Amino acid sequence: MTTRYVMLATFLLLVVITAAIAGSFEAGAWYFALAKPEWTIPAWAFGPAWALAYVLMAAAMWMVWTSGHHLRSGALTWWLLQLGLVIVWSWLLFGMNRSGWSMAAMLLLIGM
């Protein structure tokens, strides 16, 4: 296997680890009891949506990495920070039930 595909496997592994950690914080009864707008996606759609997002995040980082661009190490740093913020967001919202703090983490994530 070439280095190119080792890096793809590495990025996929990193998003799987992120998904496993972030997914370990489950939405409790408090979340399901919240008044949500009608356009909120159904609970069954979260898994497929996040899976697709994680695969696309890994593919995007792999494309950046294989480009050979001189700023790819900086891009990798930002990407890893974003993965970390996804975990923090999930922990704050589902683990700690701190919606305000999770919103702050999400704003940081969007800003990145």
Q: What percentage of amino acids are in beta strands?
A: under 5%
Query: How many β-strands, per DSSP?
Result: 0
Helix and strand content put the structural class at mainly alpha
Question: Gap between N and C termini, in Å?
Answer: 33 Å
- Cα Rg: 16 Å
- Which regions are unreliable across 5 or more consecutive residues at pLDDT < 50? none
Helical residues, percent: over 70%
The total count of helices amounts to 5
Structural overview:
- Helices cover 77% and strands 0% of the residues.
- It is mainly alpha-helical.
- It is elongated and about 50 Å long.
- The protein starts with a helix and ends with a helix.
- The mean pLDDT is 92.
Summed up:
The protein has 112 residues and is mostly helical.
Please tag this protein with its features:
112 residues, mainly alpha
